[in-house]
Amino acid sequence: MRVPDAKVALSTASVYPDTTADAFEMAARLGYDGVEVMVWTDPVSQDVEALRRLSDHHGVPVLAVHAPCLLITQRVWGTDPWDKLVRARVAAERLGARTVVVHPPFRWQRGYARDFVRGIHRMANETDVMFAVENMYPWRYREREVAAYAPDWDPTDEDFRHFTLDLSHTATSRSDAMALAAKMDRRLGHIHLADGSGSIKDEHLIPGRGTQPCAALLEHLARQAFDGTVVLEVNTRRVSSKAEREADLAEALAFTRLHLAAPAEVG
């Protein structure tokens, strides 16, 4: 079998409503290769030194930093979106993380949206950290679509150097995940692995519990010798106990490791 050099990481968002510190402990106990830190309202997620201590204590590296670009994090690290990205880059550099995940701007962030493509290129030229722009989805209400992101929820028409492919978002946008991966091609640098059923809600199901081609994508990545990071970014907030959350995250890791392999070429 051909197993790529890709690392499998746990998003700290996957343990919510537990804490960032709990995510490091869970990642260590289950055998994840590292974590992606979702910078949000948990103060520890915003504190580089606290994150470094957690990483050292548990022996779990920080492989990526997700910049605070959700609606609920509009005031985390200030309100200037470029300042947020600078702080995310600095955090990634200090923690030894390879990637900063960033969403396309909201449409009402007009100045930021207007300069976003040029600005991401400029920032990428200033660091070895990879800025991976994530595919999002149209907001829907009773089958009516609202264009919430600019230039678009699908960033692949723009000339970004790197992308994050999120399979919960392909479910919500009702996109063809494999076609989107093919369009990203060698610019696909980062994966948010989750599942979805095509609901208008961004579900982030455990891989294998929805309709997305999670297994097929992982096998494709193995054939392509993908060397980025596969991050389990799943929703476990409705579990009834921490033991159930741990079981779900163990299942997600096992699924990923099982399918992140391809038959070796016979020469």
Seen as an oligomer or otherwise, the chain set is single chain
Please write the string of helix (H) and strand (E) elements. EHEHEHEHEEEEHHEHEH
Q: Give the number of helices.
A: 8
Q: Which parts are unreliable, with pLDDT below 50 for 5 consecutive residues or more?
A: none
Shape: globular
3D structure, described in words:
By secondary structure, this protein is α/β, with parallel strands linked by helices. Helices cover 36% and strands 17% of the residues. It is built from eight helices and ten strands. The strands form two sheets. An eight-stranded parallel β-barrel has the order 1-2-3-4-5-8-9-10, surrounded by seven helices. The longest helix is centred in the C-terminal third of the chain and has 18 residues, at 242-259. It starts with 6 loop residues before the first strand and ends in an 8-residue tail after the last helix.
Key features?
single chain, 267 residues, alpha/beta, 8-stranded parallel barrel, two-stranded antiparallel sheet, 8 helices
Which secondary structure elements does this structure contain, and how are they paired or packed?
Elements: E1 7-11, H1 20-30, E2 34-38, H2 48-58, E3 62-66, H3 81-95, E4 99-102, H4 110-124, E5 130-134, E6 139-141, E7 144-146, E8 162-166, H5 167-173, H6 177-184, E9 188-193, H7 214-223, E10 229-232, H8 242-259
Parallel strand pairs: 1-2, 1-10, 2-3, 3-4, 4-5, 5-8, 8-9, 9-10
Antiparallel strand pairs: 6-7
Short description:
By secondary structure, the protein is of the alpha/beta class.
